[in-house]
Amino acid sequence: MRRRPRLLVMTAHGRIALLLAGLLLVAVGLALLGRWEGDRAVRGELREMRRVLDLVGPTLTARAPSAYRPAETFACLAYRTSKEEPYGLELCFDAEGRLVETIDRRGSGIRVSSLREEPETSGIRVGVDTVLSALRSAAPQRFPATVRALPIGVPDLGPITLEPGDAAANPG
Amino acid sequence: MALGSPARWAFLLAVAVVAIALAAKRGALRDALREPVYLVAAGLLGLMTLSLAWTVDVPVTLERTASFGTLVVAAAALAWAARGVPRFAERVLLGLLLGAAAVAAAGLFVLLISPDDALQGATTQSGFRYRGVGENPNTISMLAGIATPLGLWAAIEARSALNRGLAVTSLALFYFTIVLSGSRGALLASVAGATVVTVTSAPVLRVRLARTAAVAALLVVAVGIGRLPQPEQVSAPVTTSPGPTSTTPEPTVETPPVVVPPSERPGGALADEAGRPTSLARRGLLDSSGRILAWRMAIAQANKRPALGYGFGTEDAVFVDRIYTFQSRRPENSLIGIYLQLGLAGVALLLAIAAAGLTSAVRAARGELAGRGVALAAAGVVVAGGVMALVQSYVYAAGNIATLTVWTCLFLLTVAAASWSRRSE
Question: Could you tell me which chain B residue has the CA closest to the CA of A86?
Fold first, then answer.
C-alpha cells in the first residue's frame, strides 16, 4: 500500500480547522450574496417607483390627485388615468416624505413596487410639504396650511375621493 | 383568544433545557450530526442566523431565529434522549397527544359556556366556523389534524380499556374540531397522517384495509357535515308579482338599503383589491379561499430576491395581503413562506429535511424496529405536518401551536429508524 505524501496527512485538529475555515468562507460568501441581492432588489424597486413618479410629475400637482388614502405607516395619493380608472396611479409616502410604494393600475392587473418593509432605503425623497401641497391643491378646506403632517397612523379603509361631486360617496 | 404569550416562551426554554439534559444523559451528542435530519436542520438554523446580514428587519430576524432555534434544539434533544429507548419516545408521543387533546377539550368547553367566542360568524361565502380557543378556525384544527395519527396509534396499541377510551375520546375531539372548523387543510392532513398509521398498523391486510376504509368513510362524513352551515344571506331587493287573478298590482316590497362599509364601495379598499369576486357565490369544496392568488403574488415578490430572500422571520412584514377573498398576514404555504424569507437556499434545506424525514419513515415501515408502532405514529404526524405545510405558513414559526409537535416527531422518527433496529428494549 502506498503511503500518502507527508504534506497531505492531516491531524484531527487540522481537519476540524479546515472544516471551520470552509464554513466561514461559505458564511461570508452567503452574507455578501444576500446583501448584494437585497441592494439589487432595492434598486429595481426604486427604478420602477421613479418611473411612476415621473408619470405623475415630481411636484405631484401637474394634475390634481383624485383621492388620498391614509394608512398605518404611510399615506397615498391616487391619480385618475382614464374615465374608468380613478386610481390608475398611486404614490405612497412615509411620515418623512419618502416615496415608499407605487401602484400602477393601468391595463390589466396591478404593478406594485414597494419598499414599505424598509422605507429608509428609499432614496426618493419628495418631501412632506410637496405631498401636502398636492393634497391642499385638491382639497384646501380639508388640508389647510395649519396641517403639517401627512394623514398617517390610521387603519387603511380605502381611498377618500378628492374629486368634486364624489363627496357623497366618500364622506370624510 | 390569546394563549399566554410570555409564559409559552418561558415554557419552551424550560422544555429545551430539560431535553438537553436528558439527551446529554444518553450521550454521544456529536453523533447526532451524522443523521441527515439533524445535519440539515443545523444548516437551516445556520442560514437563518446568517440572514441577519441581509434581513430587512434585524430585530425580528434575531428574535425569530432565537425562538425557532430553541424549539428545534428542544425537539432534537428530546428525540435524541429516546435513542435506543422506544419507551421514552412512547411517553413523549403520549404527552403530545394529551396536550393536543387538552387544547381541543378547552375549545369545546368555551363553546359550551360562551359560543360566540368559540364560533366565527358566517360570511357571504361560508357558514359559521368553529375556532374553539384558537385565534381563527385554522389554528386549533391544525393541531387536531396533526395529532390525529397519535390518537389513532394510541387507540390501536392501548393496553387497557381506560387508555383506549381516552385515545378514542381524543380522536373524537379532534374530529369534532376539524369538521366544525371547516378547515380543509386540517381535514386532508388528518386523513393523510391517519392513513400512514392504518396502512402500516397491522400485519393482516384485511385489517389494514378495514381501518383505512373507516378513515375514508369518516372523511366523506366530515365533508358532508362541513357543508351544512349556511353562508350569510345578502339582503337583496325582493319584489312580489301580482297573482294571476288579481286586478290590482301589489306594491313592490323592498328591503331597507344595505349600509355599505368603505371597504365595499366601488373602488374599494385598495389594500384588498386583487381577486375581487364578481358574485357572492358560496365557496365550493374545491374553490381556493384566495390562497392560489396569494401564492402567486408571494412568489412574484420572492422572485425579487430569489437566492436568499428577505431574511428569516420577515414573512409577515414583506408579504402584503392585497387579495379580497384572502385574510392572512402570510401566504399560507410553508415552502413559499421560506422562499420569501430565505430564498431558494431555504427551500432547498426545507425540502432536504422533508426528504430525510420521508426516508426515515420508509426505513421505519420496512424495518424490524423495537418500537415500530411509535415510529409509524411519528411518521403519520410528519406526513400530516407535510400536508399542512402546503396550506399553512407554520413549520418555521415557533409561536405556532403545531410546530413543536411536528419537529419532535420528525426527529423521533429519525432516531427510531437509526437506533431502534436492534430491539434495544
Answer: B267
Query: Taking CB atoms and an 8 Å cutoff, what residues of chain A touch B269?
Result: 156-158
Among the partner-chain residues B269, B273, B308, the one whose CB lies closest to the CB of A110 is B273
**Chosen from A19, A103, A114, A117 to mutate, greatest number of chain B CBs within 10 A:** A117
Q: How many CB atoms lie within 10 A of CB B296?
A: 15
Cβ distance of A158 and B46 shorter than 8 Å: no
d(Cα A48, Cα A38) in Å, to the nearest integer? 16
pLDDT in tens, B77-117: 999 999 888 899 999 999 999 999 999 999 999 999 998 88
Inspect the interface and report whether the beta carbons of A33 and B265 lie closer than 8 Å: no
Query: For residue A154, is it within any domain?
Result: yes
**How many angstroms separate the Cα of B211 from the Cα of each of B148, B179, B204?**
14, 20, 11
- Distance CA(B267)–CA(A167), nearest Å, equals 14
Domain extent at residue A130: 54-161
Closest Cβ opposite residue A35 in set B46, B54, B304: B54
Q: Which of A96, A63, A94, A93 is nearest to A80 (CA)?
A: A63
In this prediction, residue B243 carries a pLDDT of 35
The total of structural domains in chain A comes to 1
Question: Would A119 be classed as within a structural domain?
Answer: yes
Cα–Cα dist B355/A44, whole Å: 35
3-class DSSP state of A91: strand
Contact A169 B320 (CB under 8 A): no
Chain B partners within 8 Å of A90 (Cβ): 270
Assessment of whether the complete model's pTM goes beyond 0.90: no
Q: Which site among A30, A66, A68, A79 would you substitute to test the B interface, given the most B Cβ atoms closer than 10 Å to its Cβ? A: A30
Q: Which of B300, B418, B349 is nearest to B50 (CA)?
A: B349
A2 in a domain, yes or no? Answer: no
Interchain CB distance below 8 Å, B46 and A27: yes
Residue A166 domain flag: no
Give helix B184-200 / helix B161-181 axis angle, nearest 10°: 150
Rounded CA separation B87/B81 (Å): 11
Q: Which three cell numbers stand for residue B317?
A: 412584514
